[in-house]
Structure formats: structure tokens, C-alpha cells
């Protein structure tokens, strides 16, 4: 987070936490002290196993939930300070595409109305113009215009996800939160959708917050990647550096699960074993020490600080001694 | 990071336009598996109720005292003119059944509309907002359901006098908790879908989310409920009329007609029997239709 450009970041998490109190002494720390900056037109990937807080992160980014600690800023403005006009600006600047294309389209609306809804909700664009825009968006996402009059159940999963993307694009947003946009699609469709998202960003400069659990897919489209484990960011770096030189043993483990195809890497990283501990009672010190192949005595006592490493940050005691 | 760019391909070719389907074919498809005798009978009752004034063979309100207590036409002493016989005041049973159909259907439709709208709106609010709104509404539901409704209705009708309006309001208030409970549950189910979150992200107003996204998902449930309850309300109106607090006389309703004949079941059974049969057939048909609708209106099959 050293490279602050002159531009105002689209989205910024400052030491943001989200704790859910289940009862008086049982608290789920879904997010714990998250620092994250998303510059305009960039993609930040967030990866981690299920239960690491990725989805909570996306809900905070979309302002569907408020952090219980720290701040989430949209263009340097805290949500708590949002006035009516700020909310309107936020809702016309931020969109989302979710994982399940069966759940994200209203089964009773036609495709044309689904795509045009953000325009209905937040602009006074006349109907004719809205429908023309919807038709152009169909071209943009590679769907035939004839589908405009269809209902979602008449489309396949990949087609539905394209409709969801077209809807997200309708208001020309600055930021799109992509919460596992391809995980529920067939493998053959995934690359099409990912490439579509990548092309759209290159042409129009959308910022993406991409949530995923598949490091290879996320790395393909992201400029920077944050690796999360049990509510904390354990490593963040540019995609290239994170892939070629992962610092945190957890990142190494995730990579070992995916990229065993390069002979030079084979055997270097140990794949992850074991289960993710319950976020209700995360292990003390470094949350990862119970599964870490390089765990030391200090790891179970002291929570590691984030220290800079190359272009990124890593929170691991292995590097604390050196730095 | 290597990027091999492939242009997004259209995942499906343009499909040819669906062949034009004639109205008759579409109707036949829509009614596939429907309980046709029930549908036909309900259509008949509806038509008769609408045209009641025009098709009654005799005045249903005033009788011919010279022709009192006539048996149906096929019994000894019956007259073809009074096909289903006459009551003790010489009024034509068939004409009164026809007029009673109108009354029973109007009472059912009006009170279900009242209870349905009230219950649906309250259930929707309870399910959508949760919290104290949900608490208040659901405690009201519990209170309403724990009242001895029949007694309350009797007392209210005695206090306010029996009139069509009071009857409809009473039955409507009697019905709303069922709608509120079902609609609340359905709203809780629908709220979990991502398209509700996405509507919020798109900046939709609460009003729009409630009535454009949540309510339409409940329509099928409401149609099924209303159909099944129509039969129940006709029975309820009959019971209240039988107890003497329904639609005030001399307006005929099926329930009051059954009540009028109860003292003469041995000698003039037709006075109670035919309105009873009309009620039985109507309620049975409504229940059959409701069950079919419930099986048919699976959300996934809508719009096909």
C-alpha cells in the first residue's frame, strides 16, 4: 500500500473489522484489521479458503453491511458520513456480480428488465433509451439480442452470468465487486467469462474487487492479490510477484495446490493439509500456525505484523527476524 | 502473466422465433391435468351468479303462498314450473339457490380480498423488515389465532347487527393471520436470493424491492391459498347464516336456506337438501381446483 497515486482510490479498507456476536462470549471475527486499497481501473483479487471472510469483505465493499471497527471508504468518504446524494452516487458507481447465476436474476423478470433495472432505480433515463442501452449491453457481453425478451430460466448458467454482467455494466460503474463470478460455471465457460471481464476492464477502466478461491484464475485477471486466512490478510502483492515468489507459507501452500505444472517449482512447496480452524475460536498468535509446515515456537504466541516484502506485504514471523 | 485473448463468443446462436401458437392450443396446454368437471362446474356457478337476475324462473324473494312446500318436479305433487320445489312461503328453491350463489360468491370474494390484502401486506412487512415490526405483527397474528373466532363473530354480529358489510369485515379479519404467516415465511425465503441484494445494490427503493421483487414471487402461493379458502369461506358463511347471523333475510344465501328447512327435514327435505348440495359441489370443486393449482404453479414451470 506504499504506492499511493494522485488519484483518489475507488475503495479503501482502513483497519476494517467485522465481528458477529453470536452470544455474549462467542464472537466470530469474520474480518480482523483489513487494510486494502483499490485504485481506479485496477483489479484486486482476494483469495482464501471458504470461511476466511471473503464474502464479508464483499458485503462491506458494497456497503450492505457496516464494519464493526475501522473504516471502509468510497472515494475517500466514509459510509457513515453518506448523505442522500452520496448514496445515490455510490449506488450509481458500484455494482456486483455474484457467484450463483440461478439466485442472482429475478426469475419473474425478463432479461431486458433485469439489465435495465439499475437505470430505472437511479436515473430518469427514458424507457426507449434504456432499452436501446440494454440491447447494446447484450452485444458487449456476447449475447444475442433475441434473448432480451427471455426469462432467466430459459438461459444456461454461462448466459445468465453474462446477463448479470450486462446488468452490472448498465450504469457505467467505477467499481464492480465480483464475488466468485465463475466458480459455479462449467470449466469450459469460465475462461470465456473471465476474458470478457478482462476485455471490458481494458476498454472502459472499471475497477474490480475480485473474490475467488482459485488462485490461478484470480491471478490471471488481477493486478494485485490479497491472500486471506481466517479474517486476516496474510500476504498482499502484485500478481506477478505473488505467483513467482510467494512469501507466506499459506500462499505457498495454495500455489502448490494449483501450479505444480512447472518443473522448477515441483517439490518446493508443500500442499496444504488439515482443515481450516473454526473462526469462532481461531488459534492464538498466527492463525495459520496449526497447519503451517514452517511453524516456529513464536507463531503460537505472537500475532505477526505485516512487513513489506518487495512490492507487497507479508504477515509471517519467518520474515520478521530478517526485517 | 501470459494473456491469450479470446474474443467472447456468443454462447448460443439466435434461435428461430417460436412458432405461433393458436389460442385454443395455449388454453389446452394451460389446462393440462386440470380437474375439468370442477372447472366446468365453477364456471357454471360463476355464470349463474353473474346472470342471476336474468335467469331466475321465479322471484326469489316473494313466494306464492298457494304453492307452498311443493316437492321437486319428479316427485308426486311436484310442478315443472318449480323444478326443485318450493319452501314454506312458496318461494322457488331453484331461484333462491341461483340468487344465493351470487351472495355466497360475493361474500367469499370480498372477505378473501380484504383478509388477503391485509395479511399479505402485513406478512410482507414482517418478513422484509424483521425486528420489532416482525414481533408486533406476529404477536397480533398469535392473538388473532387464539381468539375463539366463531364466538367473537357471533357477538360482533349481534352487537353491530348482521349486515353484508359487517359479515365481510368479520370474515376478512378472521382470515388475515393465515395470509400473514404464509407470506412472511415466503418473504423470508425470497429475501435470501441474491437478486434481492443486487436490487439493493442497484439502488432500488424499499417500495420497489417489496412490490417488484418480493411480492411477485408469492403470487402463486396466494392464488392457491385464496382458492382453497374460498371453499372454506362459503362454508363459514353458511355456518353463520345457519346460526342466524349471516346475510340478513330475506336475501337468500345457501346457509340461511339450509337453516330455514331444518325444522321440516322429515316432511320437506328438499328445502335444505338442494342448497346443501350446491354448497357441497362448489366447495368440493374449489378444493379440487386449489389442489391442482398447487401442483401446477411450481415456480419453475411458470412462464412456460
TrEMBL record, chain B:
Record domain ABC transmembrane type-1: where: 101-290
Name listed for the protein in its UniProt record: ABC transporter permease
Keywords recorded for this protein, A-Z: Cell membrane, Membrane, Peptide transport, Protein transport, Transmembrane, Transmembrane helix, Transport
Record-stated family: Belongs to the binding-protein-dependent transport system permease family.
Matching Pfam families: BPD_transp_1
Membrane topology listed for this record: Multi-pass membrane protein
Locations listed in the record: Cell membrane
GO biological process: peptide transport; protein transport; transmembrane transport
Organism: Amaricoccus solimangrovi
Origin superkingdom: Bacteria
InterPro entries: BP-dependent_transpt_permease, MetI-like, MetI-like_sf
PANTHER family found in the cross-reference section: D,D-DIPEPTIDE TRANSPORT SYSTEM PERMEASE PROTEIN DDPC-RELATED, OLIGOPEPTIDE TRANSPORT SYSTEM PERMEASE PROTEIN APPC
